[in-house]
Design a protein that fits this description.
The protein contains nine helices and 15 strands. With 348 residues, the protein is of the alpha/beta class. It folds into two domains: 4-148 and 319-333, NAD(P)-binding Rossmann-like Domain (Rossmann fold, 3-Layer(aba) Sandwich), CATH 3.40.50; 152-316, Dihydrodipicolinate Reductase, domain 2. A seven-stranded mixed β-sheet has the order 10-11-9-12-15-14-13. Strands 3-2-1-4-5-8 form a six-stranded parallel β-sheet, with helices on both faces. A two-stranded antiparallel sheet has the order 6-7. α3 links the parallel β4 and β5. α1 crosses α9 (318-333) and α5 runs parallel beside α7. The two termini are 37 Å apart. Bound molecules: NADPH dihydro-nicotinamide-adenine-dinucleotide phosphate and N-acetyl-L-glutamyl 5-phosphate (X2W). N-acetyl-L-glutamyl 5-phosphate (X2W) binds next to α5 and β11.
Length: 348
């Protein structure tokens, strides 16, 4: 197998750093240019001291000159910045955007939730997404562009899509709440992340159907088979560095019991290397997924409320971003999908 050269734009950020941490264990990858914006000229070690083998690498400015000549370019840039950078890159490189710019199919949704001009739509990098009778992985082979999903979207989609695809639940009054670690917000200082106020507190954000991941979740569940989707989604920031614990509930259809639901989830996920439906009675925790490209799921039926309850846990930076991105890269390049990725978490 030839060596794959990889450049990472936004290497000083959390998502770019996590791509590099994982790629350092990828057997076929050689790490090329690392770029940033205001951090250009500094060394990577000053931003990511844990990436010891790359500590002395100097960050370059982000432009066509520094990013060209690689087989793969990862873009870990703030929303709205990837379009302009990607437009300069030729088709010879596989470009993988970790941001939101190319995820949505609807330009109206983009303008409503992000504002401004929609950059376009790229093949969506969630290999396990159920699309009709198939999986999204089939659409990723040989592609030159990939849009990596939002991390909250990944946790919720993986949690509820088997029930939607199997027609076991109503899809017009889905409810999802989740707890989210701070790293999901990126490294730039933000008002709601001042340590003295946020440490020790759980605080909601994006309340009232305003979070920009709502249209992306709906897009996925339509692909999974829902004719009509409505979801009320509320994230909460909790004082942990990484991790997402999502609880998604849906009104269960008459006559559907837990055995039928478990069997639909087993059929959907038994062959998936990174998705684990836990044994009955065992509940997902973020800790068990930290550092791993895993999603852990568990199910219950709330009989009194007639609702299916699905709890899903991921590491936002791994299965939610960098790990999912590398899984999709492997598929696009014709490598074994699991290359360089593992399922072993970092608990406690
Ligand atoms: N954090 C997470 O859990 C997840 C993040 N993502 C997505 O990944 C992307 C990056 O997020 P994250 O790493 O958290 O953000 P960070 O704020 O941690 O990092 C942003 C990076 O982008 C660079 N940058 C900023 N502006 C520009 C620009 N105009 N041109 C080039 N580089 C620029 C920064 O460089 P400098 O140091 O010079 O400022 C930095 O390297 C976002 O789109 C985010 O939504 C997706 C899923 C999950
Ligand atoms: C804590 C926190 O703010 N989390 C972010 C995670 C979003 C994310 O990383 O996904 P994108 O690529 O779409 O930005 C949020 O919920 O908006």
């Amino acid at each position: 197998m030839r060596t794959i050269t990889v450049a990472v734009a936004g290497a000083s950020g959390y998502a770019g750093g996590e791509v590099l941490r994982l790629l350092l264990s990828h057997p076929h990858v050689e790490i090329g240019a690392l770029t940033a914006a205001s951090s250009a000229g500094t060394t990577l070690g000053g931003h990511h001291p844990h990436l010891v083998p790359l500590a002395d690498r100097v960050l370059l400015p982000t432009n066509n000159e520094t990013l060209s000549g690689h087989d793969v370019v990862f873009l870990g840039l703030p929303h709205g910045q990837s379009g302009a950078v990607a437009a300069q890159l030729g088709q010879e490189a596989l470009v993988i955007d970790l941001g939101a710019d190319f995820r949505l199919q609807s330009a109206e949704d983009w303008t409503e939730f992000y504002g401004g001009e929609h950059a376009g739509t790229w093949p969506y990098g969630l290999p396990e997404l159920i699309v009709g009778e198939g999986r999204q992985r089939d659409a990723l082979k040989g592609v030159e562009r990939i849009a990596v999903p939002g991390c909250n979207v990944t946790a919720i989609t993986l949690g509820i899509q088997p029930a939607v695809a199997a027609g076991l639940v109503e899809t017009t009054d889905l409810v999802a709440v989740l707890a989210n670690g701070y790293s999901g917000a990126g490294k730039a200082p933000k008002a709601n992340l001042i340590a003295a106020e946020a440490l020790g507190a759980a605080s909601p954000y994006g309340v009232g159907g305003t979070h920009r991941h709502v249209p992306e979740i709906m897009q996925n569940l339509r692909l999974a088979g829902a004719d009509d989707v409505t979801i009320s989604f509320t994230p909460t920031l909790v004082p942990m560095a990484r991790g997402i614990l999502a609880t998604t509930t849906a009104r269960i259809k008459d006559g559907v019991d837990l055995a039928a639901v478990r069997s639909a989830y087993a059929a959907a996920y038994d062959d998936e290397p990174f998705i684990h439906l836990l044994p009955e009675g065992q509940w997902p925790t973020t800790a068990a997924t930290l550092g791993a490209n895993s999603a852990h799921l568990q199910l219950a039926i709330d009989d009194r409320a007639s609702r299916l309850v699905v709890v899903s846990a991921i590491d936002n930076l791994v299965k939610g971003t960098a790990g999912g991105a590398i899984q999709s890269m492997n598929l696009a390049l014709g490598l074994e999908e699991t290359t360089g990725l593992d399922t072993i978490g970092l608990a406690p």
